[in-house]
Amino acid sequence: MFNETRTHEITVDTVILTMFDDELKVLLIKRHNEPFKDKWAIPGGYVRMSENLDQAAERVLKEKTGVDNVFLEQLYTFGDPLRHPTSRVITCAYFALVRANDVQVFSDPDVAWHNVNDLPPLAFDHKQIIEYSKKGTRERLEVCPVAYQLLNEKFTLTEMQKAYELIMGKQLDKRNFRKKVLCAEGLIELNEFSKFTSKRPARLYTFDKINLDSLRGHFIMSNKEKVC
Amino acid sequence: MFNETRTHEITVDTVILTMFDDELKVLLIKRHNEPFKDKWAIPGGYVRMSENLDQAAERVLKEKTGVDNVFLEQLYTFGDPLRHPTSRVITCAYFALVRANDVQVFSDPDVAWHNVNDLPPLAFDHKQIIEYSKKGTRERLEVCPVAYQLLNEKFTLTEMQKAYELIMGKQLDKRNFRKKVLCAEGLIELNEFSKFTSKRPARLYTFDKINLDSLRGHFIMSNKEKVC
DNA sequence: TAAGTTTAGTGTATTATAAACAATTTTAAA
DNA sequence: TTTAAAATTGTTTATAATACACTAAACTTA
Known about the structure:
Oligomer: homodimer
Helix content of chain A: 10-25%
Distance between the termini of chain A: 39 Å
Largest interface: A-B, 36 and 36 residues
Number of helices of chain A: 4
Structural class of chain A: alpha+beta
Strand content of chain A: 25-35%
Low-confidence stretches of chain A: 214-220, 222-228
Radius of gyration of chain A: 19 Å
Shape of chain A: elongated
């Protein structure tokens, strides 16, 4: 069935996640061409000869959202011979966490955010890739406070808890959550309050970006809270 | 510098780890051809058109060690344009844990086990790949008792602790270690004792393979013991 | 302007897990 | 039989996780 040659096509596909309307959203693009015409797909593209895989993923992310300098990490490489119906394409999947406000609003109705837990029919193995990225985000959150990547620069603790809850897929106790994050390094309490909430304003916090490298090991979701 | 075409060569490279002489060992092959002639390299090969990446890694492992049905997991994909000096080769790296006794003894002096912490000059980016695999093995051990993959079918708790210590890169307390593993699921106490030790014989244990799938989440090294 | 509604914010007691720590037992070898 | 090496075993302390409910502040509306 296959001609056992040595070359394949290699792409990067990027699962771009953000948070709004109390949902984790993934950016999808509706395909205009075969294969999988009219199905939705995560953004991707061929790896160029002069760039490494991280650079290819950054380029795709920048092209589709206009953002860079955000959390972007290699997830897994998918290489099933039949994942592409007409050619042999191996794809290195990345996942990115971006702030909804940073993304350029696109008027194209064929580029849209979808709830990661309520996906339309997807092209290729992209459903599997998105499922992997949900798991990867959760595992990443267990060792590193990546959830702040989804939040605005200034955020309330309620917003932060919501991000944790969406990624972990479970509700957290408000008092225990605040106790844990308030004693963690890197979180800075501001003397500002959210103005746009309709009820009691909430204190705003921000992250000390300079110390983010040292945060590995902090903000750990406990073993018991792990979704195994 | 580069012709931005769409095809690259893709290989799998496999970090094969085992344990003997109280050391974690990695299987290396001395290269006979350029590039990197006479440097050591981890076993690898081109991905065939008809196989997926897991199958390619299994094939390479089987060819080099004669073993299959062992722990073998995708690690990371390395795609720096300059990682291969003369062509554009993207490699999907895997890591495997095997029992030293299961591996066919090879008489070829250019195939040898090396201490992972004392490596000879390596070809390509293989030093980086091996470092990644040490980290990957440690992280895997934190959520799953993969260390048993390095042990014989019947093993003593001292041997098991040694495997944990080598992977974690630190010494563990004997009493706390035994307390933790003895109350974990899947470990079966045998009425047999090691005969080849020169002093007091140690009780042998084995793993309940049937229940291994349910072991995720057990045998967790605590957060405090994590090497971050 | 008072009452009602919504969200923000806070502390303690209990339980579970991890960590520190040393003496005794068993066998083979001398 | 004495000695040496490795195996085996429990308790105490410290830390972390969990469960749990009321008050405070601001806006809305009657």
